[in-house]
Specification:
Layout lengths: L18 H12 L8 H12 L4 E5 L2 H11 L7 E5 L7 H6 L3 E5 L9 H5 L6 E7 L8 H10 L3 E5 L7 E2 L2 E2 L6 E5 L12 E5 L2 H6 L10 H16 L1 H10 L22 H12 L1 H19 L5 E3 L10 E6 L8 H11 L5 E2 L19 H6 L3 E5 L6 H16 L1
Parallel strand pairs: 2-3, 2-4, 4-5, 5-8
Antiparallel strand pairs: 1-9, 6-7, 8-9, 10-11, 11-13, 12-13
Helix pairs in contact: 1-10, 2-10, 8-9, 11-14, 12-14
Length: about 400
């Protein structure tokens, strides 16, 4: 394929950084505040105040944050932890690290886990339930908490993809026994990485976790900055270069999970996270406007369904379900190809975890809804930098493919 084919007008998942972000980064680099510095304390204080928390623990990754949350909630060897099959496989590794067993539940119509799906897989060994808010869209977590409390099961509110989302006016991540936030790649607050474990119950994070965090290392923090800046923030111009390096082995949904280190968050990561929180309201407002625009442009189109966002959604992305007209047709794959050729980098969505060979050992029963729909899904961009003119062009291409 020609390198020109990779020169997207609208690349996928570009971090929402501004001039203040770069100024803060330069100051941290010049002052020696890469590993340690005042922004760690500032970030912790801001999150505690913003989410009305009792405690927050800053750590090196969202995956590590999940592990700490599990251990803080008393998850031990042989316990079962319920997760949705339709989500990122990165949630599996922390469960295994805690010595627990992942139990996969089906998806609901909004693609999030539901109380009904959870109830169907609970056993006497269930110790915790992880409730992610996929695509920035808040899950209906209250009924899950009600089921869990009746059985003395812990709930972890995974707002990694939904920083800034609200449920009934209350911030996502602050429900349940512990919560998880992330400033990693392809998130609403796409920073240099790092996760946060939060709780409104001080005793949960003070007494429950046995995880000892090492200090962050200088070279990975600096590497993360250059990698994120070059390959993601400047993706429109650097993607052709990355395509030329195609000899480097890529990763897929069934690839081994990326290992994470038991370490604290670096000050440089906190610096970027603080900048992103300062612009979070305008970031989410812009994303919600784009979700509304997709509804206006495609909401009545035959053969297509826009997965709805609940009130309070952070609108990370807009998921579209494309219905094939015949058993052999694959309009979702065709649409991804045509949009890519026109300069719009889009992607399909998650492959259900229980369909991946690496994870099949934890499958107990068919999960029909996720199995039926996953291949028909496409994620359309909602980043603030995606112009409405480009969105109109995307919608036009979608209509043309559906009607061809």
């Amino acid at each position: 394929m020609s390198l020109l084919a990779y020169s997207y007008r609208v690349p996928l998942c570009v971090p929402y950084w501004n001039g203040a972000t770069y100024r803060n980064i330069l100051y941290a680099l010049a002052s020696g505040g890469v590993v340690d510095g005042p922004d760690l304390g500032r970030l912790k204080s801001l999150l505690i105040d913003k989410l009305d928390l009792a405690e927050a623990v800053l750590c090196g990754s969202g995956s590590l944050a999940v592990e700490i949350a599990l251990r803080s909630c008393g998850v031990r060897e042989g316990d079962e932890v319920v997760i949705p099959t339709f989500c990122c496989t990165a949630v599996v590794a922390p469960i295994l690290a805690a010595g627990a067993i992942p139990v996969l539940a089906d998806a609901g119509e909004e693609l999030n886990i539901t109380a009904e799906a959870v109830d169907a897989v609970l056993t006497e060994k269930t110790r915790a339930i992880v409730v992610p808010h996929l695509f920035g869209n808040p899950a209906n977590i209250d009924p899950v908490i009600e089921i869990a409390r009746a059985r003395n099961i812990r709930v972890i509110d995974d707002a990694a993809q939904a920083v800034g989302a609200t449920i009934g006016g209350r911030p996502a991540g602050s429900f349940g026994d512990a919560g998880v936030l992330s400033f990693g790649s392809e998130k609403v607050c796409f920073g240099l990485g790092g996760g946060v474990v939060v709780s409104r119950q001080k005793e949960v994070l003070n007494g429950g976790s046995q995880t000892k965090l090492a200090p962050p290392r200088l070279s990975p923090a600096v590497r993360s900055f250059f990698s994120t800046t070059i390959w993601r923030r400047w993706r429109r111009w650097t993607l052709p270069v990355k395509a030329a390096l195609s000899h480097v082995k890529g990763t897929g949904p069934d690839s081994p999970p990326v290992p994470y280190r038991q370490e604290s968050m670096a000050n440089l990561n906190a610096t970027v996270a603080l900048s992103l929180l300062e612009t979070l309201d305008e970031n989410i407002a812009a994303r919600r406007a784009r979700v509304g625009a997709y509804q206006d442009l495609l909401g009545t189109e035959e053969g297509l369904e826009l997965i709805p966002h609940r009130g309070g959604s952070a609108c990370l992305t807009q998921v579209v379900r494309v219905f094939p007209k015949t058993r052999v047709a694959d309009p979702a794959a065709r649409l991804i190809q045509v949009l890519g050729s026109a300069g719009y980098e889009v992607q399909g969505s998650y492959v259900p975890i229980h369909l991946l060979s690496r994870y099949r050992q934890w499958v107990r029963e068919p999960l029909p809804y996720a199995e039926r729909l996953w291949g028909d899904l496409i994620e359309l961009p909602c980043e603030p930098e995606v112009s409405f003119d480009h969105m109109e062009r995307i919608a036009l291409i979608v209509k043309q493919v559906l009607n061809s």
